[in-house]
Amino acid sequence: MPFDILKLLRLKNRCKTGLALSGGAARGMAHLGVARALYEKGIRPDAIAGTSAGAIVGAFLADGYEPDELLEIIMGKRIIKYLRLSFRNSGLLNMSGVRSIMEELFRAKNIEDLKIPLYITCANLNSGEAEYFNKGELIEKLLATASIPGLFAPVKINGSLYADGGILDNLPVKPLQNKCKKIIGVDVNYTGPVDKIGNVKSVLERSFHLSIRAKIEAKAKQCDLFIDPDELKGYSLTDISRGREMFDIGYRKAKEMLAGSNEFN
Description:
The chain is of the alpha/beta class. The chain has helices spanning 2-13, 29-40, 53-62, 67-77, 96-105, 138-145, 200-211, 213-220, 243-259, and strands at residues 15-21, 47-51, 84-88, 91-94, 118-124, 129-133, 150-152, 155-157, 160-164, 180-186, 225-227.
């Protein structure tokens, strides 16, 4: 029957493994450690979906960079030095320096030119909906998904303003569903109990992640393997100087989870 043939073709064309990477700013360095553990296990994603830092890491992996290679590049560049104060009404900082680094490093110009299909999650501030870009100018979409409201000005794309995808979907499993046979989700934002909360920045950070915890828990259940390194609780969104430590935490946690997973053994 035609329906059965079409269904068979769709199943045949599904990717083997999809990788969903959360936002988390500097804690996104743990995503690279997870990727190294996956690669060592012989698991290479056939599709990647990411939000904010997860989208940036995913884009570099999709562009052909190896996890350890990317770790050295990021730690060498000290990306924070390239942020430029702008004091515009819509945001305190702009991304001109980060854009210049991306233009230097990325080989692909458009998302569809990447070696691995990539979905970049952005929040459309006009429509109030999450959008998952898998085509178009790469750097433009990456800057949009990393534009934290209040810190960075939103990015205008096709007449709409776009900001950090974490506002609406911080673990983008959705674009991988019905496309991939197995989905691995990685969340680098610890939401378990903490003994001490410090300054206003840490209060705001903690409040945001607690507010989306229920959504993340629901997304975790949609993954065949969910990796959430709890050792990251001691790291803030701006701890880029401790990137190697976070890389190692992600690596160890992924190794542990893979060893105990029936799905990937």
